[in-house]
Design brief:
By secondary structure, the chain is of the alpha/beta class. It has one domain: NAD(P)-binding Rossmann-like Domain (Rossmann fold, 3-Layer(aba) Sandwich), CATH 3.40.50. It is about 45% helix and about 15% strand. The protein is built from nine helices and seven strands, in the order βαβαβαβαβααβαααβ. A seven-stranded parallel β-sheet has the order 3-2-1-4-5-6-7, sandwiched between helices. α1 links the parallel β1 and β2. α3 runs parallel beside α4 and α4 runs parallel beside α6. The longest helix is centred in the middle third of the chain and has 26 residues. It starts with a strand and ends with a strand. The relative contact order is 0.14.
Length: about 250
């Protein structure tokens, strides 16, 4: 029986790279997306053309009803969930903290934090031996911003990723005895289009000289770390973090 994976925010960037690599390694993949069905469809088509099994499901993970529908669709169309990648997240225009308002803060935290909690909850209900499941793995996509703070740019985004780090540690301890492993990756400056959302599409080019390795990272480099954390090779690894940031 195929392993079944949900990748939130799977239509672009790190999510898309992870979905494709997971399919190559035998996972049946649900590509979750919010606004771009064409992009999600391209990821699914690429997987299917290579002999894999994938579906695309639109859902706003900050909304509880959407999360319930997302996981119910996976139950019906792919089968028993064995893995979750909490990847979906948003980044807004570069601002200082004294320029932020509650509307923006609530939007960022709803997408980046509440959504990850809701998806993790549904994954645990399906995978935990407490609920009759056979176990599984969750990988949260955090950011080195959680360590660095992103001053002058995205302190709200950094704080939301700090919450993801806490979720990773706490949930890992809660479900370790229930055959679920929970880990996280913390990407640094990766070439994806999320930077355009912050108003600076070429941000990686600007900051890469401050990275010890003197370059930005590729989405597939993050995907490879995620797939290792899902794999049996990481069978004794939980509550852990892999920084993929060129030494930053």
């Amino acid at each position: 029986m195929a392993q079944v994976l949900v990748v939130t925010g799977g239509s672009r960037g790190i999510g898309a790279a992870t979905a494709r690599l997971a399919a190559e390694r035998g996972y049946a993949v649900c590509v979750n997306y919010l606004h771009n069905p064409a992009a999600a469809g391209k990821v699914v088509d690429a997987i299917v053309q290579e002999g894999g099994w994938a579906i695309a499901v639109a859902a706003d993970i900050s909304l509880e009803d959407d999360v319930l529908r997302l996981f119910q669709t996976v139950d019906e169309q792919l089968g028993t969930l064995t893995a979750l990648i909490n990847n979906a997240g948003i980044l807004e225009q570069q601002r200082r903290v004294d320029e932020l308002d509650a509307v923006r803060l609530n939007r960022v935290f709803a997408a980046n934090v509440t959504g990850s909690f809701l998806c993790a909850r549904e994954a645990v209900k399906r995978m935990s031996t407490k609920y009759g499941g056979a176990g599984g793995a969750i990988v949260n996509v955090s950011s080195v911003a959680a360590r660095l703070g992103s001053p002058g740019e995205y302190v709200d985004y950094a704080a939301s990723k700090g919450a993801i780090d806490s979720l990773t540690i706490g949930l890992a301890k809660e479900v370790a005895a229930e055959s679920i492993r929970v880990n996280a990756v913390r990407p640094g400056f990766i070439y994806t289009d999320i930077h355009a959302s912050g108003g600076e599409p070429n941000r990686v080019e600007r900051v890469k000289s401050a990275v010890p390795m003197q370059r930005g990272g590729q989405a597939v480099e993050v995907a490879q770390a995620i797939l290792w954390l899902l794999s049996a090779e990481a069978s004794y690894t939980t509550g852990s973090f892999i920084d993929i940031a060129g030494g930053k």
